[in-house]
Amino acid sequence: MKRQRILSLLICLALVFTHTALALDEMPPAPPGGMMGPPPGGGPGGGDAAPAEAAIVIADGAEDTESEYEPGAYGANITRQGDVLVIEGLDMTSSDYTFNGLTVTGPDSFVRLRKANIRLGVTEPASGDDKGGAAVNLDNGATVYISDSNLIVDGAARYVTAAYNDATLIVNDSLVQSTGSNENTLEIAEPFSNEALLISGTARANFSIGATKTYYFNSTCTAEGWAALSTDSATGDGLDLFAYNTDGIAEHGGYGAYADTNCRVWLFGSRLTAAEIGAIISKSGRINVRSTGAADDVTLMYLEGDPVEADSALIGGRNAVMIHAPDMMGQGLWAADCGTFLAEDAYIGTAEDLKSTKNYYDYGEAVGAYIDYVSGSDFLIRSTSATITLKNVEMESYNNTLVHTVLNADSMGNFLAPGDGNQVEPVYVQMEDMDVSGDIRHEDYQRRMVVNLKNTTLSGNIVSGTMESWNDTWKDYGDVNWVVDDSFDANYGVSLNLLEGSVWNVTGESSLSLLTLAEGAVVNGEITLDGEPLAPEANVTYQGEILVTGDYVPPEPEEPEEEPAREEAETTSQPAAVTETPSAAPEPEAPAPAPEPVPEQAPEQDGHGGIVTAAVIVLAAAALGICVGIFMKKRKKQDQ
User: Fold this and answer.
1) Is the pTM of this model over 0.85?
2) 40 CB-near residues (< 8 Å, 6+ apart)
């Protein structure tokens, strides 16, 4: 028994070290001096580009009247301050669905849009052949500053702000609003995402694609549905979207922000609120959630007015955060990926009073039941791997589920074959300095899950689902595409590490595959291992069929205090790079990524990431070698 415990411990350590090494390899390298320059390359983002014609066209630093609808019609609003073109007090309206307000292209184009009111409506029926216009488009290295402005766009399949390729968009103290479809855009087809990804809505307010940099400060970006702060199809070294003290709102469906493949979303004291999903990560996308105090000087150089103090919050009517890996080609293992979510000093929760206007039973009884089944879970991970690191985060869930893994129910589910679960990253969750109530439900039986609790009290259940339990849930709904196999021969389950200062108050029935307790960690519940009572010792890893039962009742949550009104930012100050020294206005550099916590047991980085990673891998290999040695020695003795 002692050898089995040692073997289990070494295997667990090897897995954790290996996961740490991979996590370190995924982290972007720290640039010299803490700064990150503009990403190289970029290239077209999914074939999208800014329209060539608009009401105002700025190309290569000058107005291009030949590409304007009415040449020079708004020339009275445009002045030059050094290298910067300032568009002041613009009042622009249109009722044409295809109308574009402003297009800015070229690396020599620096445009300041200040105190503008742009209102683009739709008063005549639009057909499916029409392409909707946007209020502001920028492309090919252009930089656009928007401040003290209101930009509102009506109609399905339209953007309010659209940034392409390697452009930079900076928004201060402004409203960016998409009102969605109306009676004149009913013939415009619903977005592919509606049925394919089970997301509702008809238009995106902010649209960032390619290798763009997008900054929102003290602003509100709102959409009727589909998307408020959206990213798509990153190129080059990826895309970054920053939101500082900003609200991203999807009123009747959709999501507040999206981090697509190789896209990075940075929230500093910002609030995402959506009737369906607060924020979504796709494949290798990343979302980093911090307070405003964590924003670095490079980010704050674009802030107009004084810094404020605010924490971030993500709230969804269905889920606060959803992570998935759409598999368009049915590649399975080859399409597997791992999304990353990191949060500190934040609130993450679901709110039952936020209601989607979409009835998902329109797609069938099973789809509607699936949406009901997952609704209320703070984190929903659908057929993908994920790294979720939380520190000092408050969590609330109306279905009492903090983290929920499931098989993907949409048309692009990424399903694994037996054995593939050992070849992909696990779903990794670490909670530190937290006191939370709710369950962790691992129902994606096709992959592993690792949970680390550090100085954290968890009151709830941790459940390792199986193929049988998952399929049994859906047996009354006929042939559904998320019941993919009836002979899966692996049962990965949840590996739980209770680190120093942690307490697990078990509220019902739980099941694990591995359990390790640090010195002083506590499990308030009865434990059995393979049917035998277990009193776990510190720093020993137990592996097998681990069942834990308890009847702990969490105290009723206190009524939350009313959130203070957001501090008003000054609107009269201007960025130094634009107004004080306009002739020297450079293309803004992107801030370096905020420090990211790594899984427990990871050695501290010393600036030699490759050396650290190599050392970790060697350590893991050594641990595995010891495991093999023990096994072979025992086998040899048995053979004798």
Assistant:
1) no
2) 236, 237
